[in-house]
Amino acid sequence: MARKRKYTKHNDKSWVKKFDWTIDPQTGREIFAIIFFIVGILSALALFNLGGEFSNSTIELMISLFGISGFIVPLIFVALGIYFWNEKEAGIKILQIFGLVALFIFLPSLFLTKGGSIGISFSEYFLSLFGEIGGYLILVGLNIICLVLATGKRLKQIMAWIFNRGGGDKKPEKEARVSVFETVWQKISKKNGDGKVPVVRIVGDGNQVKNSFDGAWTFPTTDILQTSNTKASAGNIQKNVEIIQKSLKDFSISVTMGDVNIGPTVTQYTFKPHDGVKLNQITARSNDLSLALAAHPIRVEAPIPGKAAVGVEVPNKVSAVVTLREILESKEYSESKSGGTIPLGRDVAGIPIVVDLHKMPHLLIAGATGSGKSVCINSIILALLYQNSPNDMKLILVDPKRVEFSMYNEIPHLLCPVITEPDKTVNALKWAVNEMEKRYHILSENHKRNIVEYNQSGPAQKMPYIVVIIDELADLMVQSANEVEVAIVRIAQMARAVGIHLIVATQRPSVNVITGLIKANITSRIGFAVASQVDSRTILDQAGSEKLLGNGDMLFMSNEFGKPKRIQGVFVGEKDIHNITDFMRSQGQSSYVEDIINYRTPSKYGSTPSGVDIDDELYGEAKNIVIQANKASASLLQRRLRIGYARAARLLDILEENGIVGQQAGSKPRDVIATTERVVREPTSTTNYSSQPPIRSQIQPAPVSEEPIINQDHNVQNQSHPDQ
Q1: Is pTM, for the whole model, over 0.85?
Q2: Which positions are annotated as binding ATP (predicted)?
């Protein structure tokens, strides 16, 4: 017998669940703002008998209850409307609502007969209980407490606003604004007494870091920077919370949803997995969450550092622009006392992130083209210019692209013009290494450990910080990889104590550019959006940068943070750069150190009369050999001097530069130009090292036969140069 089919009874109300009744929080705030605006306008019209019967009766009731305070009802509703319209975060604090209601109740008590029935009752009660003076004192105190609760500001801030804005002696708005860096200037003025910035000179062999600016340095205000009114929109937050929870539940992953953090670029949805759920199960479902949310790319942070929760970062529908001005005016930036504070941007919760360059102490920046590297570097430069006078910090800017740093030319902070040539960049890096060694000698002589202790000891010649910024490392590594890598590694290893910092950027994050030595010595890194996970691992040693959105979206890794921190970088436009650089140029001229771009490492063995440095102690031996043999080749020098091909070729190059041998003509040996008499008369070195023994070939010419020369040269080599 066939089984009877069961029919389920359809619920008539099930159609209600098919509709999405949730409202975007920002849309809800705008609706509340419109309602408050309408109520405020109707209340204002009712004061002039223009609001109709309902409005008039309502305002009459308010005046009878609260007296003269009833006239501020329209202002309260309009203020609430403005608050809901402009507030970035949802809702008002409970204490603010309580303070506003209490202020509206206690304020009429100060007006006695004009305070309405509530005001009269409160004033009579307190006056009869504490007397006239004590009663008024308590009523005034209660109103002040309610005002502080309602505004959420300290009493000092309220009084300062009243006197600055409402006082009779008004100042222009630009003069009334206090500079963020006023405290820095006060410290400099107190230390120097007369307010003059001291001239900085570093003792050296003609390579003095000078500054022609002797007047009082004025720090710029944030008024010359641009602002942005864009707001981030996360879309339907409640719907996304339900989608995340349901999608994970479909894969047997039970979670409890937590807070929602709305950032400039992404919104972070946090949740706590139930017991028994592995984190790799959640991270493996990132693509499924991306499909369910119809958002790409999303990033799963498991776990969130410092929290027992997992975060899912979903791109916002509308991204907000983070400007340099808002970070410079933030509390986090003003609390930093270091002159090397760098404003990076805002994290996924919208909190400003600032770091100290002196603690890092070097920075590596990498990312694809157009991801925001150059804008990040410009924001770092402007932040350093905001905090330091030309005598506190010097800059060396390297711009192989020729267009990124051209606007900074001729500002007083530059040690040399913006460098665009690779060979001059190598010279500048070698100069920085030499400057580092000089500074260590000065610290050693003065028994100081670092630049801070040295400058605090009150020397006659203070050391400025030096920041070397390279916009594109890949171009330099292609042409002079060995020299650039050696100089960068030496600076990164040793230069922190003497105040020399390095900021290097590249758009080609490959192992040929960001070598293992460079990565090992520069631990603070910024990874922008890249094309593949391989590039991300090259920068940060882990995946993540391939899921960034670009336009300043970054992952910052340093010793301060256990894991890479996602940050929306600061945006600065060309107008901001022009305003700051023009302000700097208006205060003084630049004073360049010309030896930087033309620097050559001093040779240990002196130089020849032609001016070519001799960097090989076998130069004299090689010169005698080629002249006596009347031919010059690398193989000849290899046999006679027992050296390798590279060293023999280098000796031939030096001999050619000094006019001893001619140019190479194919595979034939070079022609010898110099004579034996010239060799005897010509000194081979101008070095002053008196402890060096004279070379035997310079005192007594070797015999012409080849076999004794080999033995003789071999003996000399073993005696004077056992390392060869």
Answers
A1: no
A2: 367-374
